Amino acid sequence: MKAMLLQRPGEPLACVGRPDEPPAAGEVTVALRCAALNHRDVWIQKGTYHVLKYPVIPGADGAGVVTAVGEGVNAALMGREVIINPGLSWGESEDWARPDFYPLGSPRDGTFAEKINVPAIQLADKPKHLDWVHAAALPLSGVTAFRAVSSRAKTKRGERVLVTGIGGGVALFAMQFALALGAKVYATSGSDEKAKRVRGMGVSGTANYRDPSWPAVLREQVPEGFDVVIDSAVGPGFQHLLELAAPGGRIAFLGFTAGGDIALDVRPIYRKQLSILGTKMGSRRDFDAMVELVESKAIRPIVDRTLPLSRANEAYGIVERGEQFGKVVLLNDLGG
């Protein structure tokens, strides 16, 4: 088979031939129709992700058709259209992942290839209302956002939810899921154009975080404060999120793209009895519940653009520069 291989950090991906390997016991082979890029893939290419192995085939998101089954796997899976839950070895607890938990794409080879062998328990049926492009956009960002919004922050109908940094895949899924759960959603963005687009999707109000007055803008829109805040930056603006939260509010952070090493005045946490919730990808239960919500509400992932998998390096540049609005999906053209 052919695959896009990252030989060592800092290098572009190269299309290479790899031996076809039959699935091991308990595994299946999935012929991939589409894959999707996450910012995690950029960090792996740069060598800054915390779990690294080289050479590696990157990619956590994928959708395709089961073409082979290993020993002990039900043969009825043959020909099934599936998406792949990329989270391996979550563990038994719903509250946290095992220390050796990791998604596909490093250290285990990922989805930027013609096919992939994965444990059969990682499969879920492709939602019937989604084509291959939108199905491939769903897994990693979808389960990460769902766990933050639903499992951890326990967003309820009628609550006021603030999603920061709207425009990337996870933030847009958080917006979509919060809206689907009946919340009133607000957002910050560094782009007025992206803010305008989400207002057209049901977001009640926005603020541009590049404007120093953004906390005051949000306070004017929601003087009562936000019941739920979903953040992925944990940067200097995190203090403002504490101030903007309503009494009893929950702040879930699902990453720390702005560094995470910040000084905080914790008095708002004490006075308002806030809950600060760390959240990381999601369990199998989270994944199944996310897919169920997507199907029941006919949610379509927001896709910015598609590119051939052979042009993956171009896609990396788009994501690294933050040019996308939604997911960048890679169409598998390596077999041609």
UniProtKB/TrEMBL annotation:
Q: Enumerate the GO terms in the molecular function aspect.
A: oxidoreductase activity
Cite the entry's keywords alphabetically: Membrane, Transmembrane, Transmembrane helix
The name this protein carries in UniProt is: Alcohol dehydrogenase
Q: Which organism's genome codes for this protein?
A: Ramlibacter henchirensis
Query: Which chain positions lie within coiled-coil regions?
Result: none
Record's SMART domains? PKS_ER
User: By its UniProt entry, which InterPro entries does this protein fall under?
Assistant: ADH-like_C, ADH-like_N, ER, GroES-like_sf, NAD(P)-bd_dom_sf, Zinc_ADH-like
Q: Where are the transmembrane segments?
A: 161-183
One Pfam match: ADH_N
Indicate the segments forming the Enoyl reductase (ER) domain, all copies. 10-330
